[in-house]
Write a structure and sequence with these properties.
The structure holds 2 protein chains of 2 kinds.
Chain A: H1 12-20, H2 25-37, H3 39-50, E1 130-135, E2 138-150, E3 153-155, E4 160-161, E5 166-172, E6 180-190, E7 196-199, E8 205-208, E9 213-214, E10 231-238, H4 245-251, E11 258-265
Parallel strand pairs in A: 4-11
Antiparallel strand pairs in A: 1-2, 2-3, 2-5, 5-9, 6-7, 6-8, 6-10, 10-11
Helix pairs in contact in A: 1-3, 2-3
Chain B: H1 7-26, H2 29-45, H3 59-75, H4 77-84, H5 109-115, H6 121-131, H7 137-144, H8 148-166
The chains are: A alpha+beta, B mainly alpha.
Chain lengths: ~270, ~180
């Protein structure tokens, strides 16, 4: 066990600055003097010097002040959590993300097959990427984009996916919007027996909509229980309360308050 | 060393230090890497320096930026369950001087999460600087650009908040300076 400090521990910031050679000379001398007498703080510095975490690559973006923005996009917020999970039905944030493929024969007349007992179909025409929400300040039209990162390359408005792609969801509201909304990401996929499978890869949260608001959290999609890789990524939005996940899973990628982007498997 | 003006260079230079700091808060190297990576991606994207994002980035400035990002993550209820699942038992603020540093959790994630509901950002910054980064009150005052008196007041409020959470008198963490 590391011994206790002999007096007042050196702060982590000072130790890091010392390791980088950035402490002012007088302060550095004082810290070095302490370290020479204190095994505890010396051990902390040793730990810093022995630690070399790998840094994920930053995206290749133009330097600040460059004239032309990149043709594809923008920046990433932090990817968390890093998930690559297997199949399963709708689950909590840290659980599986399923992809619901379109049925092979293209079925889906847009309606449920409730009375016959058949599973609801993945509509040929799911809700589009824009949705109008009645917020307290008035109607707000919100646009959904799925941002895809593949081997360091960022696609701002993905329309297709491959197995190792990491996805994030971005919403855009008009400048006067600024609505505070409850948001929940749901991914639909065709599963075994043509059943509609829904999964919720990210925690539900409240957001203040604005220009290109990226929801925290990234996810990968994996094959559904039927092996399908297509997916429809939707965001359910509600100004009043968190969307009901059971209801979302039951009704599929259509209905009020839902913006969806279909992603074809590559 | 002069502050770094290029985010990419700053990432290479300070990234490891910032990851270690974020890991002390979040208890996860993966989450820490994500936080730091996200910070620098945003810095890259920024078109021009702003009052809160100076042209030159030094480690103290970036330390504060990482504190804010980590607190946002802890504060987000949606992430909280995931974060707290990795903490087996409630590690409370410990009192007394001379404690072990490198391998000692001074403030548990559960307590920090609960304190984000009771304290504002100014107090939470002081909390992190004191109990995660091990700064003295003088260092905190310099780091945050305020007076030692203000830091003392904020620490007192933090102690009160911990007492309120614990529901027991005299259970507040002792400040290292002047503690027995």
């Amino acid at each position: 066990m590391t011994p206790a400090c002999i007096s007042e521990p050196v702060s982590w910031l000072a130790l890091e600055q010392l390791a980088l050679g950035e402490l002012p000379a007088a302060r550095a001398r004082a810290v070095q003097d302490h370290l020479a007498r204190c095994p505890a703080c010396r051990a902390c510095l040793d730990r810093i010097e022995a630690d070399a975490p790998a840094l994920p690559a930053l995206p290749a973006l133009p330097a600040r002040g460059a004239a032309a923005p990149p043709a594809v996009a923008p920046w990433w917020r932090a990817w968390w959590p890093r998930l690559a999970v297997g199949g399963g039905l709708a689950a909590a944030a840290a659980a599986a993300v399923l992809l619901v493929a379109r049925a092979p024969n293209g079925d889906g007349d847009g309606g449920d097959r409730g009375p016959t007992g058949e599973a609801p179909t993945l509509a040929l025409a799911p809700a589009g990427p824009r949705v109008a929400i009645k917020a307290p300040a008035g109607e707000v039209v919100i646009a959904l984009a799925v941002v895809r990162e593949r081997a360091g390359h960022v696609e701002a408005e993905a329309a297709s996916i491959a197995p190792d792609d990491r996805l994030k969801v971005r919403l855009t509201c008009p400048p006067a919007g600024g609505a505070r909304l409850h948001a929940d990401v749901v991914v639909f996929q065709r599963g075994a027996g043509a059943r509609l499978e829904a999964a919720f890869p990210l925690p539900a949260r409240t957001i203040t909509c604005g220009n290109e608001v990226t929801l925290d959290g990234a996810f990968r999609v994996t094959p559904s229980s039927s092996g399908a890789r297509d997916a429809t990524v939707c965001v359910a939005l509600d100004p009043a309360a968190a969307p009901d996940r059971a209801a979302l899973a039951a009704r599929g990628p259509r209905g009020p308050g839902l913006a969806c982007v279909p992603l074809a498997a590559e | 060393m002069a502050p770094v003006s290029d985010p990419t260079s700053a990432y290479r230079t300070y990234g490891p230090a910032l990851i270690r700091k974020a890991e002390r808060i979040l208890r996860s190297r993966d989450d820490a890497v994500d936080v730091v990576h996200g910070l620098f991606v945003d810095l890259l994207q920024r078109d021009a320096p702003t009052p809160t994002a100076p042209a030159a980035m030094d480690l103290p400035y970036l330390y504060r930026a990482v504190t804010h990002r980590c607190l946002n993550l802890v504060r987000d209820r949606a992430n909280r369950d995931r974060l707290l699942a990795r903490e087996h038992g409630a590690v409370e603020l410990v009192a007394g001087a001379g404690r072990v540093r490198c391998d000692e959790e001074v403030i548990g994630l559960q307590l920090l999460a609960r304190l984000t509901e009771r304290l504002d950002e100014a107090h939470l910054e002081v909390l992190v600087a004191r109990f995660v980064d091990d700064m003295t009150q003088d260092e905190i005052a310099e780091h945050l650009g305020t007076s030692r008196k203000t830091i003392g007041k904020r620490l007192a409020r933090i102690r009160d908040a911990v007492i309120e959470l614990r529901g027991a008198p005299g259970a507040a963490p002792a400040d290292r300076e002047g503690a027995p």
